[in-house]
Amino acid sequence: MGLVIGRLDLGSRRTGWWLFGGGLALALAARAVSALLLYRMGGLAQLIEQNGLGDDPGGVTALLWEPATPMSWWYLALRTPHSYTPVDLLHTLGSAAAVLGVALLLTRLPVVARALAPLAAAGSMSLTLYSAHLVLLATGVLNGERVLLFLSMAVGALALAGLWRRRFRQGPLEAVVTVSAASARRAVTRMLAPRP
């Protein structure tokens, strides 16, 4: 969906409104379907019974927020974040589209666009920053200090992106992907071109 959205006219106010409205509707519909399946149609009761959690409120909470290995089709109705259920994926997609729509609409205002410039710089090199954060996490630095780790990653990413964007158009890993994708596109175009 990101590729599809990326091909839209993101400079259009109409696209911003469609992303916001459509994304919000999709996110709310996913939650409503989950509630219907789990509560109205008895899915949660089935999951509680199958897992033997009748008198265990903590177990029910864990079931809803940290589900174990799926043992029933009812698991697909859970809206647990990062569970990769259809409901979670649709909710995440809708939420992301709505946030993107709001950002596109707000950044049409020059004062907001200037205020969000550091986020735009970081967004233009998301692959590089994501990879850098994985390397940082692998080192174990600040492992026991979650808040300090988060703040250092957030501030570091914004500062690094801002400094990098002053000299270069895209991040280093983004440049590598762009060059390799362009080379592959040219090679495929040559292969498919009609021969004289």
Automatic annotation (TrEMBL):
Keyword terms: Membrane, Transmembrane, Transmembrane helix
Membrane recorded as keyword: yes
InterPro entries xrefs: DUF418 (IPR007349)
Keyword Membrane: yes
Domain DUF418: 68-176
Bilayer-spanning residue ranges: 17-39, 89-107, 119-141, 147-164
Annotated protein name in UniProt: DUF418 domain-containing protein
Source organism (scientific name): Pseudonocardia aurantiaca
Taxonomy of the source species: Bacteria, Bacillati, Actinomycetota, Actinomycetes, Pseudonocardiales
